[in-house]
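Shall we go through a protein fold together, starting from nothing but its sequence? Please make up or recall a protein chain and show it to me in full. Go ahead whenever you are ready, and we will take it from there.
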Amino acid sequence: SAPPVQTTSPEHLTNSKGPTGANSIQKAPLQRTLTPIAPYGEIFLYNNPESTPDHGAKEGLQKGFKDKIKLKKQRKKTPKQKESMEKGSSPAPTIPDPFKDEYSTVDECASILPRAGLDPSFGVTPEALAVGPAASGPNDGSLIMVECDLYSDPADALGGVTRNALPDISPYACFYGAPKNQMLKVGWLDKLSPQGNCVFQRRWVRFDGESLAYYNNDKDTLRRRQSGNRQGGQREMYSKGMILASAIRQVRGLGDNKFEVVNSLRTFIFRAEREGERQEWMETLQTAMRPPACGSQKRSDSLSHLSSTNKRGLLDVRGYKSRVLVSLVGSKVRLCKTEQDYKAGLAIAEVELTAANIRDVDRRGFEINTPFKNFCFTAESEREKEEWIEAVQESIAETLSDYEVAEKIWFNKANRSCADCRAPQPEWASVNLGVVVCKKCAGQHRSLGPSISKVRSLKLDSSIWSNALVELFLEVGNKNANSFWAANLPLEEELYSGASAEQRATFIRRKYRERKYGRILEGFHNLQQLNQALCAAVVLPDILQTMALVFSGADVMCATGDPTFSTPYLLAQRAGQRLQMEFLHQNKLSDFPRLEQWSENTSLSDASLFMDGFLYISSGPAKTTLDRRGRDDMARRWCTLEGGSLSYYESERSPSAIGRVDVTEVVSLAVSTKETMTGAGAVFTVELYLQTERVLIVGAETQETQHDWIHALTKCFIPSKVEGLVQKDSELIGRLHYKEGHDLYHWRTGWFMLEGSSLHFSSGDEEGEEEVLQLKQLQELTVSIHTEGEDKIQVLLMVEGRRTVYIHGFNKMDFALWHSAITLAAGTDGKALSDQQLTKNGVPIIVDSCIAFVTQYGLCQEGVYQRPGDPGRVALLLEEFTRDARNVKLREKEHQLEDVTDTLKSFLSQAEDALLTKELYPYWVSALDEKDERQRVKKYSTFIESLPKINRSTLDALLQHLYRIQQCSHLNHMPSEKLASVFSSCFFQTRGQTPQETTVVHDLISNYITLFSVNEDRVQQMEKENSFITRWNDKKDTTFSPAGDLIFEVYLEKRQPENCCLIKVSPSMRPTELAETALSMRNVTFNADDLWTTFEVIENGELERPLHHSERILEQVLEWSTLDCPSSAFLVLKKFSGAKKDGKDQRQFIKGDYVKFNDGSSNLLSGHKFQDKYVVLRAEKLLLYRDIKGTKAEKVIHLNSVKCYLGLKKKLKPPTGWGFTVYTDKQQWHFCCEKREAQVGWVTDIIRMKYGSDLCTKSVNSKEAAYHKFSRGGAVTEGQKIPTHNHNTSKQV
């Protein structure tokens, strides 16, 4: 059990002036509970001899700690130096030998007072133990010094000391002063001038064991002597030159009372007046050069512990003509002429900082003021000046420091390096967290706030370091503390001692505030369970379990249920657990939320939306996201984010903010993933766009810090329902107005996030799901001006597949940001296939366009792909595709076939990686070892599956194209062998065509159907398309101008050039999809009530047919090749009232009426005249009777093979303008009506009966069907209503 606690009242300490520190600074009397703790083997101070512990007491002291502290290696004893009593200084202990054990506290083997009294042979004199002016008796109030040595035999330790009394122990256990530099030799000498003129100059020379310095005169010698005691031997005047004793290599005598001091760089020659004086100087210097004998004390600087802040650099110093190398080591500033002199141990003078202070003078200047002289320095930059001021201030503070507490804390080996960055000799601690940290990390701990970390200095805050607190740090140590705080720290996220302030702040915030790396205690589900476990833990010695519970959220002040011992602290006190009491005392104001709040998401928690740290701020006009190369107007500011406001200050000490931004007003946040150069260096910026059209730019020094600030900022203005957008590596995130899909009538507010070439967006509604637009696959990207009431707004239209999205921003600046970012993301930004603008099938547009053009115009050309194109035109066309492939339209009259084929081959050859990938090259070639072609094809299929998705889709398109080409080899003379020879170097990106490569490509072309599992319908479709294309070629009708295979001209309302759209028609495209695509390209909104209908127009516009929604566009268009003049046919979109829903049952429908009829025959009797006939429509047949009474039809037309057109050929001279024409396979039938309503009625009824449904799809008014279609990329349906806008201007992006 722990020894009883002796309570010392303040009255008992009234007569004690308190212990004296290492720098002769008297400490305040200790007014708190003192305990007999001495686990360190140091020298302790007692107020009187009666207070010294006896034999039993010492055994009690040792018993509690020998199990906790490993026995250190016995050190050699060194005699203590004898100090003069006139100086009145405390006896200095032996300085630990740095070449022995690195961390001794005080020499544990030093002699102690009782042994000195019992053993006359013990070599310590009474003078060496005297303290104060009168140290002879125990009744004069002086302090008597004894040593508590854990490692010596108790029987030898305290044999002659008064027993049975508990010691009144000061918590300041040991003194670590260093002996003052003693003046070894001083006097006048002649020094040979360095100019080599054999001129000796009179110099006052001093040697103090550390350096040999010489002065111009000794006019202040008397004053220096008079102030010696008061100033502790400080020199008042500064030397003209000096040689460090450690740099002296040899001292040799010369004739004529001269001697020389040899240095690695120079030789100094001095001359004395007498031979005896010269001999004294030589002996003094030579003695100082000898290595110290075993057990002797080594020479030391004025501080045995040098400051960790060492700095060196060139500065301008007032009074010196040229720049001087200034070095700061420990408590001295050394001035040297050059870097070479510094390394050789030569200097001009040294400035002692013990009684100095530093002052900021101007932008680049600072001043060090000593009692004897002011030194004015000028640095190259303001930042360098600030670094010097900070370093000198730390050194000045170092002269006032007391190392006794630090030495105690460092006795635990784990405490000898920083708990966060592992920097050596940390001199600060977080007293509630139980970690010892370096100065740089301590600054970041302060920013956490005292509720998380209470930072104290080991050297300057000595009043708070009670024995219990010191013992707590020895018991815990950094290693045990990190077993909780860094239990899950990844190796790649560890902090290193050279980390920047930003990196340090990020790491420490994550470690202690967010507890990202902390150990999670299992089995605790609520705060009550944590508190119960804490109450049980504090009565036991396991302090680490208590720490884990408190740091996991247990309440230190929780109710225990015991009215007498109502808090965990009182429970620990009852159990005599002093360390538990100390830990609970230090954490009584700590606030750690329950750890489970952080376990699900290691990012910043909603529980603590507070951040602070240094950022670079600029509130000037923003550069676009495309141009962030540099900013010179960013200033480093201390920033805090709290309560939804971002405030920034001149510095962390500034009382008032110089600016504040309400983050809830942010509409967009742009992230720069690349460094932005500023006047202060490279930073990673974040741009905040506000509703007020103001932009605030903030910059972080590291990407990790930038990432943390982004998470904190976005939590202030983005609702939790769309937080999934924030988790991604977004480049741009914010709010926009948009409409698309299910509701094109109203603008809605949505949340958008740009990540690479993907645009994610969500409405933020409960049922709203996140949707994605692949910007590389946009078919349309257009900006237009829309009128909304009295306002004109810019709207960005995006069409992807069968999907249309409109967006506009909150202001012009916001819209410009999104427009430029989306345009950049949708463009071509590299040579890789994935960097290209893509079709909806994931094929680069350049490949798709070239294939379509060659299929249309080169399918029947002899030697296609073998004929070379013009290099200049090829390079120009390739550049156009690279700049914006989406807007390159290949036309037969404007582009040569050979140029297009070479453009395709050049693109494949110059891509970042081969289409078949260089990585798989050996596998493709090795497949040829299989002689059986079917086995080879199986291997090829495996390799194709392992290709990247875009490579696979591109290969599919190319092989399909080449398969078509070789199918027409009887016309173009390009069988698969020749095509393989041409494309092998393109597919593999090799310079020559090896037989192996050619064979592989030949196999791929020949077996395309098998490799890509092409179904029979698709094969027949390709053959049908080929036959039509070759038929066109036979007709030599070059005026027919679809711009390549499957690309056709579609007109809006009328066939006029300004109304033309070029649309890629896929084999599966139907009229509704075509109408939606064309209207979106022309920025015309699709309103179902307008009844937009696709018409096939032939015979130079005399006949037009509304297409049923189930018809395939491509099949109808390719049949134009059977016309006498295919170029006269075209597609047009018009509003057609006949497309209204009828709702009739077509199976039971019967229609009959008189209509004028002409069968188009050349019968002379008929005279080409129209005759009245009674026409009946029923049972999918059109029946013609002579009159209404007729029982037998004169003509029967089966509707399953007819096409019904509005209009009649003018050469028939119809009696009215309201007719329709029915085409069969072999004949044409012409009908003429009296009114337009009758004309439209007959045509629409014939079409309805033929297809069994209305012209428009039945799901037009079904919202659910509309959603289903859009989810598959379907057409816009009747449920999608938007208001008609005035399109003042339209600009193609």
